[in-house]
Amino acid sequence: MTIHHETATPDTSPQEALANTIGARVSTPGDYATSIAGLGFFRREHPSAPVVCMVEPSIILVAQGEKQLWVGGEGYPYDTSRFLVTSLDLPANSEVLAASPEQPCLGLTFKLDLRMLAELIAQSDLPPTRDRSVTKGVGMGSVTPAMLASFERLLALLDEPQSIPVLAPLIQREIHYRLLQSDQVSRLRQITSVDGQGYRIAKAIDWLKLNYASALRVEELAARVQMSTPTFHHHFRQLTAMSPLQYQKWLRLNEAKRLMLNDHLDVSSAAFKVGYESPSQFSREYSRLFGVAPKQDIAMLRGQTDVTARRKQS
User: Fold this and answer.
1) Strands lying side by side in the sheet with 74-78
2) Alpha helices, DSSP H only, in the chain?
3) φ and ψ at 88, to 5 degrees?
4) What are the phi and psi torsion angles at 153 (to 5°)?
5) In terms of domains, do 236 and 247 share one?
6) What letter would DSSP give residue 47?
7) Does 149 lie in the same domain as 60?
8) Which of 241, 273, 306 corresponds to the end of one domain?
């Protein structure tokens, strides 16, 4: 069955057209990948309490409803008029503020290509940013008609799969260019500037993601990205709302959760696998992050998965 892309009519706003397109493709709540690299859809039918998540460098656009991201105790609400942008891999909590079965929260996630942003900045011959007010890896920007139009063209390619390899890269490049014309340009330029602190913190995060199970010596990681230890600590916490050790702990606990849920490891095995020496310490820290003990959490998640599977079969 072919799902036809909805276009805006005089009676339909660009956001409504986007919501129609996404709603036609995702009929049940969840997160969905698409055949276009870096593009995903989401659907939620009820408001929900904050859920632990990792947000990659990306833009999140709501076509209908309202969501909120919590980073370091600060909330960032976004809706059809405001997009969310993250310039680093950020541990966060995602909350649905407005959604119902009749009016579900619908939207898309679009992964940023930091190399492409850097190329566009160089081609545009823009001077290096001197804006020191941007100190966080997350922000909200105003949705513009030009941005919506470029996303609409990208989504239209889902009905024309043979054209995706040729046309998608061109439209993705345009979307990055539109972002550099938005009110979030300083945040994006800060993270792509090779001599900037944000770029170095991003490199440190890349190392942490690959080496989360290893013992962390902050002074060695700071030296690795050519920063003094105090400066590294300061900028890491400013951008991520966590210390490097807290960030590593977050990575370990979430990987352990995945191992228990998907690979059926027991609590102790998962704890040792991600670098913990004490299963009891692991359980305490897991309960603190997720609000429930590991065994209970995995049992509840498996129960939810079974219910979802039965719904899809019926």
Assistant:
1) 48-55, 90-98, 66-71, 74-78
2) 14-25, 114-123, 145-156, 164-180, 185-192, 197-210, 218-224, 229-240, 244-262, 267-273, 279-290, 294-313
3) -140, 165
4) -65, -35
5) no
6) -
7) yes
8) 241
Same structural domain for residues 209 and 145? no
211 half-sphere exposure, CB direction, 13 A CA radius: 14
| Domain of residue 304, CATH code | 1.10.10.60
SS3 of residue 6 by DSSP: coil
pLDDT, tens digit only, all 314 positions of the chain? 344 444 445 567 888 999 999 999 999 999 999 999 999 999 999 999 999 999 999 999 999 999 999 998 899 999 999 999 998 899 999 999 999 999 999 999 999 998 899 889 888 776 555 555 556 889 999 999 999 999 999 999 999 999 999 999 999 999 999 999 998 888 888 777 766 788 899 899 999 999 999 999 999 999 999 999 999 999 999 889 999 999 999 999 999 999 999 999 999 999 999 999 999 999 999 999 999 999 999 999 888 755 555 555 55
Give me the number of domains the chain comprises: 3
Same domain, 187 and 213: no
